[in-house]
Amino acid sequence: MDFNIGFIGAGKVGISLGKYFSINNLNLSGYYSKNANSAAEAAEFTNSKHFNDLETLIRYSNLIFITTPDDVIKEIWNELKEYNLKDKIICHTSGSLSSSIFSNINTLGALGYSIHPMCAFSDKFTTYKSLNQIYFSIQGDDAYLYVLSELLKGLGNNVIILDKDKKPLYHLANVTVSNLVLSLLEIGCSYMKSCGLNEKDAINALMPLIDNNIKNIKAHGFLNALTGPVERGDLETLKHHLTVIPPSDLDLYRRLSLNLINLSEKKHYGKNYNILKNELCN
To answer: What are the backbone dihedrals phi and psi of residue 160, each rounded to the nearest 5 degrees, phi first?
Structure first.
């Protein structure tokens, strides 16, 4: 089946995906946005068209991506339902929502999917350059699940097929290793700033540690990348940490350290970490 891909929403995700699809020879019909200037900008960047109304975009598209914020998807769907959607494939790109948000879609002769690019879209004009390295997840109606999966694989991407009840847990995984890690890194930098460094110097000083950790995890897995005082069983260092850590961060330090102990026990089978556990739990 030949797809004519239309986008509702012309922000970072919509523009990046559209550009990525277009440079890989997929056919774009174009963009609709409530901000007409954004749609025109996206169309120019992706060498496609911009539409002034939903009905025209629907007419010229058989694969429609809703690339709006999550809170707007249901509203967009309620608008789409007012038009003829027979034989249309409707997708959203939310990580947390399933295709179930497209209520009664089958009664309209259409099919619904959630297709989520596992990527942080930081810039609408450059992010597309790195999309060949990412995974996509897909969830939805069985009818075109394989076809859409193969379409993405044909671009060189890996694809994860999900059950709809796994979407919240899947999204939690994405947020944990992305947004929450950012928060954790900021906390670490705040300790360096308390040592007298400014933020830029704190980031630069810690970045080799951060980079090497990620590289080692990628190359060797979690257990073989594990280092530090918890793995070594260094009780005195742990005690020093507990005396200087801000009270608001104490529970976080304990929880993460206990998980490190769990990993250390797997790496060093038979080694006793009970003295560290007792210190953390008391």
So the answer is: -110, 125
Q: Is 104 left (phi over 0), alpha (psi -120 to 50) or beta?
A: left
Q: How far apart are CA 138 and CA 173, in angstroms?
A: 15
Are 135 and 159 contacting, i.e. CB atoms less than 8 angstroms apart? yes
- Rounded CA-CA distance 89/2 in Å is 12
117-171 per-position pLDDT tens digit: 999 999 999 999 999 999 999 999 999 999 999 999 999 999 999 999 999 999 9
Q: Are 198 and 211 in contact (CB under 8 A)?
A: no
Helix pair 199-225, 181-194: axis angle to 10 deg: 130
Q: State the chain's mean pLDDT as an integer.
A: 97
Q: DSSP letters along 81-141, please?
A: TTS--TT-EEEE--SS--GGGSTTGGGGT-EEEEEEE-S----TTTGGGGGGG-EEEEEE-
Residues recorded for the chain: 282
Pairwise CA distance, residues 282 & 277, whole Å: 8
CA atoms of 264 and 235, how far apart (whole Å): 14
- Which pair of tokens denotes residue 58? 């629907």
Side chain identity at 217, as an amino acid letter?
I
Residues paired with 138 in a beta bridge: 115, 161
pTM of structure: 0.90
CA atoms within 13 A of residue 114's CA, in its CB half-sphere: 27
C-alpha 149/C-alpha 159 separation (Å) is: 6
Q: Going from the N-terminus, what domains does the chain have, and what CATH number goes with each?
A: 4-162 (3.40.50.720), 170-281 (1.10.1040)
